[in-house]
């Protein structure tokens, strides 16, 4: 732990290796914060395409069934704020972050579309 | 429906980008990035295109579809990201700088 423990910090990390709940939790643990709230998103076999800031590179990776695709952790002095912040993060991610998921089946695949995405076709 | 471009009296009435003109008809090289289904339809992830410096989002889409006609099928399901802001394919005027990135953004599915 470093000296600036009372200063709020944001960590955003993208990786193609397996995600660890322990590792993410440890990033937000702080003596001043009695509550840590977590969200873990899991899905089926998929390929991911995503755009990081100004980079045109993608991070193609195949995520096996029931492995975590996203982990969000927020700590706060009391639980209400961190629970609300986690919900805000996942809702905003689903509505605005340029990540695309392709679900791959035996003979076909399908690009998924979040209903939160305002430019997706509502008819499916 | 394209909005008509203003024409200076000395400009040739031709399509494309006239050389040596410092006004709004001048072209810029922009990077176009393709993601997800748009990358599959275009057959590539990125390229440099020459487009008019001032152009509406819809006109820009039509320029890109001229190069990659297969993209036409997703026209109602994409937005652009220009300098990291989402832009609908409409009449919004884009003022493009050299080297700007324009990304084609199909419906997202993160989370």
UniProtKB/TrEMBL annotation, chain A:
BP-aspect Gene Ontology terms: Mo-molybdopterin cofactor biosynthetic process
Q: Which InterPro entries match?
A: MoaE_sf, Mopterin_biosynth_MoaE
Entries under Pfam families matching the protein:
MoaE
- What name has this protein been given in UniProt? MOC2B synthase
Taxonomic source organism = Balaeniceps rex (Shoebill)
Classification from the root reads:
Eukaryota, Metazoa, Chordata, Craniata, Vertebrata
Q: Gene that codes for this?
A: Mocs2_0
TrEMBL record, chain B:
**UniProt pathway:** Cofactor biosynthesis; molybdopterin biosynthesis
Which SUPFAM superfamilies does the entry link to?
MoaD/ThiS
Keywords associated with the record: Cytoplasm, Molybdenum cofactor biosynthesis, Nucleotide-binding, Phosphoprotein
What would be the name of the gene that encodes this protein?
Answer: Mocs2_1
Q: Name one GO cellular component term.
A: molybdopterin adenylyltransferase complex
- What are the coiled-coil residue ranges? none
Q: What is this protein called?
A: MOC2A synthase
NCBIfam families, per database record: moaD
Record keyword Transmembrane present: no
Query: Which stretches are tagged as biased composition: Basic residues?
Result: 1-10
- For the region Disordered, give the residue spans: 1-22
Q: Name one GO biological process term.
A: Mo-molybdopterin cofactor biosynthetic process
* Gene3D superfamilies according to UniProt: 3.10.20.30
Q: Could you tell me one molecular function GO term of this UniProt entry?
A: nucleotide binding
């Amino acid at each position: 732990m470093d000296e600036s423990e009372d200063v709020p910090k944001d960590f955003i990390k993208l990786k193609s290796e397996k995600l660890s709940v322990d590792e993410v939790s440890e990033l937000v643990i702080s003596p001043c914060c009695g509550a840590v709230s977590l969200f873990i998103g899991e899905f089926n076999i998929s390929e991911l395409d995503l755009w990081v800031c100004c980079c045109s590179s993608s991070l193609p990776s195949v995520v096996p069934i029931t492995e975590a695709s996203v982990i969000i952790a927020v700590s706060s002095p009391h639980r209400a704020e961190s629970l609300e912040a986690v919900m805000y993060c996942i809702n905003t991610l689903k509505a605005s972050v340029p990540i695309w998921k392709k679900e791959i089946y035996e003979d076909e695949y399908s690009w998924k579309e979040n209903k939160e995405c305002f430019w997706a076709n509502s008819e499916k | 429906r394209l909005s008509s471009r203003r024409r200076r009296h000395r400009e040739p009435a031709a399509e494309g980008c006239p050389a040596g003109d410092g006004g709004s008809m001048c072209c810029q090289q922009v990077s176009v990035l393709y993601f997800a289904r748009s990358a599959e339809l275009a057959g590539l992830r990125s390229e440099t295109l020459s487009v008019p410096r001032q152009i509406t989002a819809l006109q820009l889409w039509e320029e890109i579809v001229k190069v990659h006609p297969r993209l036409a099928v997703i026209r109602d399901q994409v937005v652009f990201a220009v300098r990291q802001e989402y832009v609908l394919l409409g009449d919004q005027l884009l003022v493009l700088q050299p080297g700007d990135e324009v990304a084609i953004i199909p419906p997202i599915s993160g989370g």
